[in-house]
Write a structure and sequence with these properties.
Blueprint: E1 3-8, E2 11-16, E3 18-20, E4 26-31, H1 45-64, E5 67-78, E6 87-97, E7 101-111, E8 117-130, E9 141-143, H2 147-167
């Protein structure tokens, strides 16, 4: 990893020039307890969202080496339920980076006693790196090592472009 001072679109900061997807991967494991359940005795969606936000933040912090803030939940797709005493595994990785922002994909699974996992949620969060004054600061570029990394990058780029259109009121 190489560091240098970069001025990027008027942003100044000491940045690591680039990092791989694997350098920031994050995994968190939770056991669903009674206090995590909704009225239907399923994992409360808000609780899962909280866990996802934490995983996204840790993933983004690992990538940029700075504090981060959540600026957008781009997608949060509930596919299946989790119930009391289920083990929930959350896996986060960087899929796309801009100048100061990082798109983090967090996939959540229920893991059974034999270790088999089934996907229950896929989420895309946009995180922004912050300097000591809580102002946006540049982030490292992303090294794409695998075909899957490249596919995720291209899809992330499309989501970024859609977010820009929505932001500009053109969508």
């Amino acid at each position: 990893m190489h560091k240098k001072v970069i001025i990027n679109n008027g942003l100044r900061g000491e940045c690591i020039l680039e990092k791989t997807v694997n350098e920031s991967r994050t995994e968190q494991v939770q056991i669903v307890s009674q206090s995590d359940l909704n009225g239907y005795k399923r994992l409360f969606g808000g609780r899962l969202m909280e866990w996802i936000d934490i995983v996204a933040a840790v993933t983004a912090r690992r990538h940029c080496g700075k504090n981060v803030t959540t600026v957008m939940v781009d997608k949060l797709h509930f596919k299946e339920v989790a119930r009391a005493n289920d083990v929930v595994v959350l896996k986060g990785k960087i899929t796309y980076v801009g100048s100061t922002s990082m798109e983090v994909c967090v996939r959540s699974y229920v893991e059974n006693l034999s270790g088999m996992r089934r996907l229950i949620n896929t989420a895309y969060f946009v995180m922004v790196a912050l300097d000591e004054n809580e102002e946006p600061i540049c982030v490292p570029k992303l090294i794409l090592e695998t075909e899957q990394d490249r596919v995720e990058w291209e899809n992330g780029k499309k989501r970024y472009e859609l977010r820009q259109k929505r932001k500009d009121g053109c969508f």
